[in-house]
Amino acid sequence: MTEIYRNRCIELYMSGLKLEDSRRFSRPAAGVTGAERNRNWYPYPISERINNTNTPADPAN
Q1: Residue-wise pLDDT tens digits, 4-16
Q2: What's the 3-state SS for the chain?
């Protein structure tokens, strides 16, 4: 199962579905020992904020 999940991570990484897949399989979240991901969200890039005034604020954590 670990090898299957690893291959799914590689396959889904650039499609934007890796986080949902990680949640679906109840993998350890950020801040937990043995976590596979370092955070549950990523800040919006500055270029996105400049070009889109509707960009929401980044979450606190």
Answers
A1: 878 877 877 777 6
A2: CHHHHHHHHHHHHHHCCHHHHHHHCCCCCCCCCCCCCCCCCCCCCHHHHHHCCCCCCCCCC
